[in-house]
Amino acid sequence: MVAPGQSGCGPDKQNRSHDAIEIGYDGFRYLPEVRLLNKRVFRERRIINRFDHDPLLFLTAHCNGQLAGFKIGYAVSRSIFYSAKSATDPQFRKRGVAMRLLEAMVEEITRMGFRELRFDAFPAHHPGMLVIGLRYGFRIRRLIWDDKMSDFRIQLSMKLPR
Ligand SMILES: CC(C)(COP(=O)(O)OP(=O)(O)OC[C@H]1O[C@@H](n2cnc3c(N)ncnc32)[C@H](O)[C@@H]1OP(=O)(O)O)[C@@H](O)C(=O)NCCC(=O)NCCS
Predict the structure, then answer these.
(1) Domain ranges of the chain
(2) Contact present, 35 and 47 (Cβ < 8 Å)
């Protein structure tokens, strides 16, 4: 796992720590803003198929009171957690928002007792999360051609610290 880089809301890489990214653990509180961001980034109304997973983790990142990003995941078994969707508002990209959300999810699900985190990446559509995942220490599990997406589905996985 790589050490987290300097992250913060401001555009100036050297002074980012002054404008901390605020991580929230109750994304439902910001559902209308998340819906708008989801629609802008993915051009679809659906955020994920269903919200009634147990447990489900719905994280948000705020910069100076404004929604900067979100990340949603849920348990697929007693030991495996799946990160289903994440996005950063284009105006807050490359400031460490996605990395902070990933760190927060890893921290929280490790605390909950999960042993592994997985996610899927579609490299032709959204290459960023694949780069972040590999840099963070995820390994590629499988590569499957996805007809519906007209893209490869790259399944990534990372063992969590005990
Ligand atoms: C992928 C995404 C979430 C990244 O968000 P972000 O907040 O800009 O990412 P971060 O700033 O935390 O990036 C962390 C590192 O990854 C790198 N990175 C981020 N996006 C990248 C991209 N598209 N290509 C290559 N590297 C990228 C950054 O340069 C950064 O490295 P640095 O700290 O050395 O500069 C964002 O681009 C996005 O919302 N994309 C569209 C939706 C998407 O792909 N969602 C994920 C799949 S569901």
Answers:
(1) 19-159
(2) yes
The pLDDT score that the predictor gives to residue 3 is: 38
What are the structure tokens assigned to 96, written together? 């460490």
CATH H-level, domain 19-159: superfamily:
Gcn5-related N-acetyltransferase (GNAT) (3.40.630.30)
Burial class (CB in 10 A: 0-12, 13-18, 19+), 95: buried
Q: How many Cβ atoms from other residues are within 10 Å of residue 4's Cβ?
A: 12
State the residue for tokens 């508002």: 89
Please give the pLDDT value at position 2.
36
Averaged over successive runs of 10 residues, the pLDDT of the chain (162 residues) comes to 59 65 98 98 96 97 97 98 98 96 98 98 94 96 95 97 85
Which residue from 58, 129, 155 has its CB within 8 A of the most atoms of ligand 1, so it is best to mutate? Answer: 129
> Could you tell which of 131, 135, 155, 156 is best to mutate to test the pocket of ligand 1, judged by most ligand atoms within 8 Å of the CB?
131
Those residues whose C-beta lies under 8 Å from the C-beta of residue 156, and which sit 6 or more positions away, are: 118, 119, 120, 121, 130, 133, 134, 138, 139, 140, 141
